[in-house]
Amino acid sequence: MKAAANGVLNLSIADGWWAEANHLGGGWTINAGATSGDSKSTDKAHANAIYELLEKEIVPLFYQRNPIDDVPYEWVARMKTAMQNLAPIFNTKRMVAEYAEQLYFPAHRRWQHLNESGGKRSIALTRWKAHIQDHWGDLRIEERHTDATASAIQNPELGVGESTTVQAVVHTDVLFPHELTVQIYHGVLDEAGEIHDGSLNPMEYQADLGGGAYLFEGSLTLKQTGLHVESGYTERNVKSLGKHPSKNTDLTEPQGTIKKMDRTAEIARETAETRIRLRLDLDGTGAANINTGVGFLDHMLELFAKHGFFDLEIQAEGDLHVDAHHTTEDVGICLGQALQKAVLDKAGMQRFGSFTIPMYESLAKVDLDVCGRPYLYYETPLVTGKVGDFDSELTEEFFHGFVNHSGTTLHINVPYGTNQHHIIEAIFKAVAKALHIATRLDERITGVLSTKGSL
């Protein structure tokens, strides 16, 4: 940039600022042409291109002098062209403006976004980073061949422009698939067997294979010749990165103070009887991915998420060969822990919620207070019995676990009803609706909704 302002001509590969400026007549571009991709052959091609330009263009032009005044007028003309075309575009004013607009201003907006409402987003992001770091070493990537990749291994020669499919099974004890960005890293191998100028292709989540294993799939199209892989795919060819909602937020515009709070929580719990991973997003759309091994409980939790507009993911393994008691209770505990973690200090939250749900002959009324003081009032006509594979009396155990670990005062009253399925479903729906109301944020509320100023 300083050189251009002083009329110095440039000789460079089309990289950095010269990639944008090389067509403006301020110098020459080194073009190595097609290479095999390894660093040695590329360096050799660049050197030959430089020698060619020096010998045939640059040196002759510089020494092409006027015999009267010994001035290289063609060279000077190029200098003037460089100053005229480059200086107005590539200058300190532009550099400072782009640094400010592309880096400093977004960084400041991000700082404001993370530190609103007492820095809750910063706290959540810090906890998430620690969570990812603590469990990153548990990740394991396993090769999995599709018909296409198996064919590619048997016949490893693929032409430029041809595509193939890659599958990978990612094993993780705690992390969820939405927390991972899985990518195919591919490129031409150099003489040392390392990928040269690699490219990244995204892989999409396909399926939960159980036991903390998740299937991802992606495709790649070969764009240059050379040896891409020795055989098959190895772990170095599949990358896995952590991701967090606040890191992907568009911060080009100032963010709202309350309505865009990142109120999520992740819980991992392992005992001698159960192993549970749970993620809750209070500001979701009702999306659910539930697998507890207890079909009726899965159904109740799915409708809980749906009617509360919560995004909820639960993967649970328990001693179901005994019964569903430990699994049901521990899932309730984890959901309570997630709620307590998601609402943090409860600032700006409505706190109270009530809802009544009719379900055919049954009626469930729920009143709750997310106040930090656990209490369960439970009055229903439920008696011992089963709904599918679920013992009806475990409904109370579930909400005991939820209440004790979320710090919620919860009153469940079913004044009448006969069908156990209807009664339990009405309860879960009513709790979801009441909790949705209680966890709403209201910009009129400063701090917590309490005359004491604390809960």
TrEMBL record:
Keyword terms: Amino-acid biosynthesis, Histidine biosynthesis, Lyase
Database matches in PROSITE patterns: IGP_DEHYDRATASE_1, IGP_DEHYDRATASE_2
Coiled-coil zones: none
Any single biological process term in GO: L-histidine biosynthetic process
EC number: 4.2.1.19
Catalyses which reaction(s): D-erythro-1-(imidazol-4-yl)glycerol 3-phosphate = 3-(imidazol-4-yl)-2-oxopropyl phosphate + H2O
InterPro entries linked: IGPD_sf, ImidazoleglycerolP_deHydtase, ImidazoleglycerP_deHydtase_CS, Ribosomal_Su5_D2-typ_SF
Entry GO MF terms: imidazoleglycerol-phosphate dehydratase activity
Family designation: Belongs to the imidazoleglycerol-phosphate dehydratase family.
Protein name: Imidazoleglycerol-phosphate dehydratase
Organism of derivation: Geodia barretti (Barrett's horny sponge)
